[in-house]
Hints:
By secondary structure, this protein is an alpha/beta fold. Helices cover 23% and strands 25% of the residues.
Amino acid sequence: xxxxxxxxxxxxxxxxxxxxxxxxxxxxxxxxxxxxxxxxxxxxxxxxxxxxxxxxxxxxxxxxxxxxxxxxxxxxxxxxxxxxxxxxxxxxxxxxxxxxxxxxxxxxxxxxxxxxxxxxxxxxxxxxxxxxxxxxxxxxxxxxxxxxxxxxxxxxxxxxxxxxxxxxxxxxxxxxxxxxxxxxxxxxxxxxxxxxx
Length: 197
């Protein structure tokens, strides 16, 4: 792992698909990270969410060595598409294997995908902290951001890092804490690139 003299290189706020995929990607590149999740592991693994992965999402997970998190989940033999209505707009979701690279989308319930991402992240040595309440971000516009939270045992904790990745969703603390001029990145509306929810 890359060491910086801080607690970790990246603190990821949010243990859903986006946060866990990022955590797994960073882990595979040797970049130290800690994932903070507000809820318990049981809650996260059981919470019902709508979502599926299209060709791009499946390809990205495979390219980063995470094919196992989606394998065995309803690959279609039809070679067709599934019609979706997203924000009032009809879109086609490719479910077949006629992609130029032979990739296809999968029907993998989001809670199954999250459960698999957790399993792989922890198996490979990732640091995932469930029950992290009252997360707050400090000095994020500097080279030494801090992330404070209350551990599930009630103690206050502070993590020093090089970067903070806000993966805690539309209503999460990250969205309101990061000034618009800090990063030119557009916030994603759903999990990993290529996901549909």
